[in-house]
Amino acid sequence: MATPPLLPAMATHRLLLLTVSLLLSSLFQAALSTTFTLTNSCAYTVWPGLLSSAGTPTLDTTGFALAPGESRAVEAPAAWSGRLWARTGCASDSNGRLACGTCDCGSGALECAGGGAAPPCSLAEFTLAGSGGNDFYDVSLVDGYNIAMAVQPQLAAGAVAADGAAAGCAATGCMADLNGPCPADLKVSGPDGAGIACKSACEAFGRPEDCCSGDFGTPAACRPSQYSNFFKNACPRAYSYAYDDATSTFTCASGTASYLLVFCPATSTGSMASLKSSVGVGSTNPSPLVNNTVSYLDRSRDGGRGERYPSSSSNASTSSSPAPSPLAVMAVAAWTWLCTTRHQRLLSSS
Ligand SMILES: *[C@@H]1O[C@H](CO)[C@@H](O)[C@H](O)[C@H]1NC(C)=O
Ligand SMILES: *[C@@H]1O[C@H](CO)[C@@H](O)[C@H](O)[C@H]1NC(C)=O
Fold first, then answer.
1. According to a count of CB atoms within 10 Å of the terminal CB, is the N or C end of the chain lower?
2. In the chain, helix, strand, coil percent, each to 5?
3. Is residue 210 part of a domain?
4. Which domain of life is it from (predicted)?
């Protein structure tokens, strides 16, 4: 039997190049990945679901259970986009299939495996490394509501000036529990009659004016309704209808933040205390994260003081961190750009 021919020099060279570029690209991938930390502050178990948008890489997990008080970190690659949510009231049926009271993804299992959330469902939406070198994120009630959630960017030390170039890098979410106060014609009730979710008007009635479709398919034509205002008043930073962009989309410079996603966030204590930061959208005053004047919110839980957002005199991580020098910001931007272009070049060269 003849010995296998030696690899031609050219092929060896290419192999080496491929190995090196794979090594480097995995290094850059790691350096450019973004961490989502999901925390369950609810008194009950939730089952997060994660869905990658078409054309972006899948994550290591697409769903799992999170006990009360538990946290789990999920790494997302650079340039990931997709959505995260919390299934509630899940139980296995006699065939061992997991079925959930809200936001079921249809997989019958912990992992959603590409399945999306059945509305009504509160959604956290992300586009990492989007246009202008920014991460875009929002909490959307366009598909309805099932749980209170907050997205809080965690800034790499000194990477972003809270009130400088990245003024939109703020906490967002819907802090209010709307399952009780949900209007009767939008309400979804569980077996015991208590509200477990709240439909959007689009889902409940299917009218073009609620769905921003047909003649109402433009931002000018699709206006807030009494129904979308129910959500907007309680959760001023969350999307309440499809064209609610102006007050609902937030951005952080890509690569400068990881993201904390908290289900049932406490509005006045603990890790969410820094949510009081008034840093918001663009140069205008941002909407408050909690609207204390909304009359239907339950005020009994904290002695009638309302689900108050801590006052601006208390300590916030964002306002106490020193503003970085413009040089540092430029260095980070340059490094990010270098890594990205190098990464792409290496990939295409292999
Ligand atoms: C707060 O809710 C009230 C209704 O209770 C509404 O009129 C007001 O516009 C809301 N504020 C914000 C910032 O959404
Ligand atoms: C802010 O933090 C300092 C030091 O941790 C503390 O002494 C002070 O009481 C805090 N202020 C408020 C308003 O929480």
1. N
2. 25, 20, 55
3. yes
4. Eukaryota
**What is the C-alpha radius of gyration for the chain, rounded to an integer number of angstroms?**
23
Give the number of C-alpha atoms closer than 13 A to the C-alpha of residue 13, restricted to the C-beta side: 4
Can you tell me the mean pLDDT for 103-114? 98
Could you tell me the end-to-end alpha-carbon distance of the chain, in angstroms, rounded to an integer?
A: 33
Q: Over the chain, what is the mean pLDDT?
A: 79
Whose CA is closest to atom 10 on ligand 1? 233
Separation between Cα atoms, residue 105 and residue 350, nearest integer Å: 37
Among the bound ligands, name the one nearest to the CA of residue 286: 1
Tally of domains in the chain? 1
Q: Determine the residue of 276, 315, 317, 319 to mutate for testing ligand 2's pocket, defined as the one with the most ligand atoms within 8 A of the Cβ atom.
A: 315
CATH code, domain carrying 258: 2.60.110.10
Question: Does 349 fall in a domain?
Answer: no
Q: Which residue owns the Cα nearest ligand 1 atom 8?
A: 233
131-155 pLDDT per residue, tens: 999 999 999 999 999 999 999 999 8
Residue 43's SS3 state is coil
Question: pLDDT for 323-339, tens place per residue?
Answer: 445 555 555 555 555 44
The label of the residue with tokens 């609620």 reads 210
Rounded CA separation 309/324 (Å): 27
Hey, what amino acid is at 198?
C
Q: Is 213 exposed, middle or buried (0-12, 13-18, 19+ CB in 10 A)?
A: middle
Residue 104 lies in a domain: yes
327 occurs within a structural domain = no
Structure tokens that stand for 125 in this block: 């939406």
Residue with the larger pLDDT of the pair 317 and 59? 59
pLDDT tens for 208-231 read 999 999 999 999 999 999 999 999
pTM (2 d.p.)? 0.72
Please report, as a single letter, which amino acid is at residue 113: A
Q: Which ligand is nearest to the CA of 317?
A: 2
